[in-house]
């Protein structure tokens, strides 16, 4: 009977949450496409970088409160539940991310979807008396639904929520609501007419044991690059906090630096998500140092206080890294790009299982062994730091 009540209760909550968050993600993705198209057709918008940065800094300083912590706030609340996530977190991150992309900041979208999902779903806590475990399940549901719906990877979204949040004890009680919320959020998002990016599926059938050695080589490089990305972000954030103590001015200065660079060189491909470059990397050789430039622009954007996610920029970094190193292997270009795309993501977020599942959802089940190998190797090589500063290593599994 307890199991029946558990399935009934969390089946209803997960379904409701998935439908709401999936709809919110659809609105966000449609809005993001409109904003991106507007920037492409109106290049003058980059001149708004400093002014938009000043506005963004003022809004978060005046009204953001703890919402400025972003994904780390959700993780901290999961670690030590104290108060319901502020609902303002959802509209703030929605508007600020669109603003970032409108003026050409280098950022992603997963952080927005996750924060919107967490903030929306956690409001259920205000209407029901929930214990600590049930509150944690709500947060997991929000993260799973947000991630799954924004990328079109429902199973990876569910595992991502568990790996990021449940870093000390993987409890299987979280699995059912996480999976259901992620799946429904993805289905609802698709019903709203959203079309997710589809990547080229490489041919894994010709890989053998010798190929596996080169996959391990790619994993080592991915881990090192992810480590560089994380350390660069933390170092740059500390510089902004040290030399620009007032938070309102940080995105203003960051926007001014970005504007000066964009005006002095043709760097438009590093603005926004960079999906065109990601897709091109699967079939066209690109400049060898594009992955380093994307690290620079993303770190500068996010460290100075602009909003968005890190995952799509990590896809860009991984894809262009694979494009740069594929000539050192006998493997095909599309294969190395696909593997490095998930490898860098795995290392930076410390989610090798979620990235393995994502790799299979995006590139096919037949690549499981090689996708899993690069995700684990890159994860190990990158050390014990993550893009989420509040995240802790996972040490135990229990039933």
Number of strand segments: 2
By secondary-structure content and strand pairing, the structural class works out as mainly alpha
Strand content: under 5%
Using the CA coordinates, give the radius of gyration.
20 Å
Structure annotation, total helices: 16
Distance between the termini: 19 Å
How does the overall form come out from the CA principal axes?
A: globular
In which order are the strands of the major sheet placed?
A: 1-2
Report the helical percentage: 55-70%
- Please write the string of helix (H) and strand (E) elements: HHHHHHHEHHHHHHHHHE
The largest sheet is:
2 strands, parallel
Rounded mean pLDDT score: 91
Low-confidence stretches: 393-399
Folded structure, characterized:
There is one protein chain. The chain has helices at residues 2-41, 49-64, 71-79, 89-102, 110-121, 132-151, 154-165, 175-191, 209-243, 249-264, 275-280, 290-303, 311-325, 333-349, 352-363, 368-381, and strands at residues 169-171, 396-398. With 399 residues, it is an all-alpha fold. A two-stranded parallel sheet has the order 1-2. Helix 12 packs antiparallel against helix 13 (311-325). The two termini are 19 Å apart. 53% of the residues are buried.
């Amino acid at each position: 009977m307890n199991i029946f009540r558990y399935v009934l209760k969390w089946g209803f909550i997960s379904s409701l949450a998935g439908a709401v968050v999936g709809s919110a993600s659809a609105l966000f993705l449609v809005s993001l496409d409109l904003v991106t198209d507007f920037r492409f057709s109106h290049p003058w918008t980059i001149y708004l970088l400093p002014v938009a940065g000043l506005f963004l800094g003022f809004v978060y300083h005046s009204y953001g409160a703890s919402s400025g912590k972003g994904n780390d706030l959700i993780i901290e609340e999961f670690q030590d539940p104290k108060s319901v996530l502020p609902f303002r977190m959802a509209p703030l991150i929605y508007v600020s991310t669109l603003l970032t992309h409108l003026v050409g900041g280098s950022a992603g979208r997963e952080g927005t979807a996750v924060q919107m999902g967490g903030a929306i779903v956690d409001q259920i806590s205000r209407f029901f008396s929930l214990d600590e475990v049930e509150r944690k399940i709500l947060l997991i549901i929000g993260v799973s639904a947000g991630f799954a719906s924004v990328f079109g990877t429902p199973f990876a979204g569910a595992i991502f929520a568990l790996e990021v949040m449940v870093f000390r004890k993987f409890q299987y009680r979280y699995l059912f609501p996480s999976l259901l919320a992620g799946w429904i959020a993805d289905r609802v998002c698709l019903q709203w007419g959203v079309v997710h990016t589809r990547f080229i599926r490489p041919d894994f059938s010709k890989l053998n044991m010798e190929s596996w050695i080169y996959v391990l080589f790619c994993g080592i490089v991915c881990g090192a690059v992810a480590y560089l990305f994380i350390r660069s972000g933390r170092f740059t954030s500390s510089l902004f906090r040290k030399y620009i103590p007032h938070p309102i001015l940080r995105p203003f200065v960051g926007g001014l630096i970005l504007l000066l660079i964009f005006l002095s060189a043709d760097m438009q491909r590093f603005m926004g998500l960079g999906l065109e470059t990601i897709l091109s990397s699967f079939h066209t050789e690109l400049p060898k140092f594009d992955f380093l430039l994307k690290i620079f622009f993303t770190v500068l954007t996010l460290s100075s206080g602009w909003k968005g996610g890190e995952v799509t920029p990590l896809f860009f970094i991984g894809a262009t890294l694979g494009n740069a190193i594929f000539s050192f292997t006998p493997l095909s270009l599309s294969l190395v790009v696909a593997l490095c795309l998930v490898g860098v993501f795995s290392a930076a977020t410390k989610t090798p299982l979620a990235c393995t599942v994502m790799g299979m959802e995006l590139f096919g089940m037949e690549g499981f062994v090689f996708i899993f190998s690069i995700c684990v190797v890159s994860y190990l090589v990158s050390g014990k730091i993550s893009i989420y500063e509040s995240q802790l290593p996972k040490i135990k599994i229990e039933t």
